[in-house]
Structure formats: C-alpha cells, structure tokens
Amino acid sequence: MARTRAARWAIVALVVVPVVAGCSPPKRPDGTESAMLRPERALVGVEKRMFTTKNFTLENGRTLPEMTLAYETYGRLAPDGRNAVLITHGFTSNHHAAGKHAATDAQPGFWDGLIGPGKTIDTERYFVVSSNMLGSSYGSTAPRSIDPATGKPYGPDFPVITLRDIVTAQKAMLDSLGVRHLVAVAGPSFGGYQAFQWAVTFPDHMRGIVPVVTAPKGSGGEQAVENLIAQLARDPNWNGGWYYDRGGLPSTLTAMRYDTLSRYGYNEALAEAFPDPAARQAEMRRMAESWARQFDANSLVTLRRASVRFDAERDFGKIRAKVLYVLSRTDKLFAPSIAPGVRDKLAAAGVDARYFEIDTEFGHAASGREWAKWAPALRDFLARLED
What we know:
The protein has 2 domains: 2-26 and 35-217 and 309-385, Alpha/Beta hydrolase fold, catalytic domain (Rossmann fold); 219-308, no CATH class. The chain is of the alpha/beta class. It has helices spanning 2-9, 163-177, 190-201, 221-233, 250-264, 266-269, 277-294, 297-308, 339-348, 366-369, 371-385, and strands at 15-18, 41-44, 49-57, 63-74, 84-88, 115-116, 121-122, 127-131, 146-147, 152-153, 182-188, 206-212, 322-328, 353-358.
C-alpha cells in the first residue's frame, strides 16, 4: 500500500504540447509507438513539490529536527521503481531542470533541451526527478529556514553540511517516492559533485552517472570560504551573518552574481539575443539583480564550505556505475586540462568511464545552451545502461 501511494504521488500533472500540431506519434511496423521516433513535446504545468522528514542526522552527528527538500518530477515512475533519473543542479542555481511551470514563463528549465517527451532523457521512458540541494535557497532547509529552537532563521548557526549529507537527503526523498533504483544521476557543476558523491555513497543504487562541467574533488580549501565571508562582510548590513532584519545584502550579491555570470560565459551566450554590448550588460545586470533577491548569502557560505571539503577521488574504488564525464572546451572553472588526470584515476580504479568535450564558446554555461552538441553522447550512454 505504501509503495502504491508513493507511485501515485510521483505522477506529475503535465500538459504535453506537441511541437508539430496534428502529428500523431510514428508507429513501428507492429503498430506500437516508438519513443525514439515521437516528435519532441514541451512540458507545461510542471509542479513544485516538497519532501519533509523529521530528525535528519548529518554526517557530523548533528540533527536537523525537520529537513525539507524542494524538487520537481517529469514523467511516471514504473511499477518496479527502477526507471528513475536524478537531475542535480549547480552551486547558485535551482532545481527547475525542464519545462515550464506555466505557459507564460519566459524560460524553461536549465536542461530543457535534454529532458522531455521524445528528448534524450525521454520522460515517456524515464521518471525524472530534479532535486534542490540541502542548504540551497530555493525551498529546501537552509540557513534562511526557521530554527525550531529559536523561532528565527538559522543564519550563520546553520549546521555544517557535506556532499554526503546532500545526497543522503536526496536518497530519503527518492525512497519516499518509491524509487528503488536509479538509471543515472546527472548534473552540471555542483550537480556534478553530487553525481560523483552518489556513485561513492550509494554505489549499488544507480547504473550510471553523468557529471558535467565539474570535477570529482573540490578546490580552494578553507581559505576560499574565509575569502567569501570577508567579501560578504564588507557589506554594512552583514552583522556577522545576521542581516535578515536589515534588508539583506542585495547590492553585494548583485555585484557577485554579475561577476559570476561573466566568468561562466553568459556574455558570449547572450551575444546572439543581445548583440549590442551595452544591452547585453544590462541583461546580465537584470539577471544578477533577480538572483540577488532570491539567494541567501549564508547559503553561499554553507555550500562553498561543503564544496571545498568534497573529495570523491579518494573513494573511486567504490564506484560500480558507468561514467560519462563531460567538460566544456572553454570552461574557466573546470578546464578540459583536468580531464586526463580524472580519466587516469577512474581507469586505475577499474571504472567504466567515457569522456566527451563540448566544442563551444559558452564556457561553464555550455551544458544547457549547447545541449544539442553533447545530446548524442548522452543518448548513447543511456542506451548502454540498458544493456
């Protein structure tokens, strides 16, 4: 009965809109529909969902009295609970990976080119779950959440979390949906960290992982965390991280986000839509301001601390999943020069791994913008997982 309820909750109410009006799905010679031949359709009406559990114990032994994860789903869970693909997201982004919440939304999810009916991650074949991170600012338990002990935001008192905590929270959420085994875990940047962490924490729970524009080990060390805090502390509202009743840090976060967008390749990615440099800079400023209104500075610190302590390399020997490792030729954060070292370490650990490099000018932002360039490699990889 419990599994039946979980499967029912896993079904998303979607309006599936054919791209070519009036076209029926092509048929195989036996008259059945071919998922590979169906025209691509858009996901509209994607629902925002929440999972909550009590007394979630962290790796350091501390307990969150209540732990919530925000997530979205696309497609249907198979009766055996084994057709799921988990999508993970980047450091400062969110879990809206595909489709639109409403037809009037300006933009679809960050991997919309890859996820949907008839697309590479075919939602008529797979049950796709896109999870927010513990510690993030988009609905999950995080520093801005209310501490039951004080009735106020956790703020800088939020417990230290690790990548292991992040994926363990996702495992609890998937269990509640009735997911028994994953086809794959896939995600860009910090999402790639999560994919690697899944492979070493729950090695028998997935057939493959797809870490994209990422690495299997964090960098920067504790000094990177201290540098971030020092940058935030220059804002007059900082107050040791207790800024919630002071109006927050909008100007500081906007400036930080604008710099991030520039480094991530958005100047190049927006060039076609905004050929005038001034208009392009104005659009990046608009994007930065919008993000600064939503993201919490203490979440930046929490997730940065988790990232610099992340190290899946030391546990490569635990990996049982196949790996498709994808980097971008022009990425300044995770340059392709790191690929040979990662590949050698995976090979030494006996991991079945393949590598693909996206030929792009869009840097760290390439995985969504240039989805068509690496979709064939991803499609082939998913097919191998079915063998």
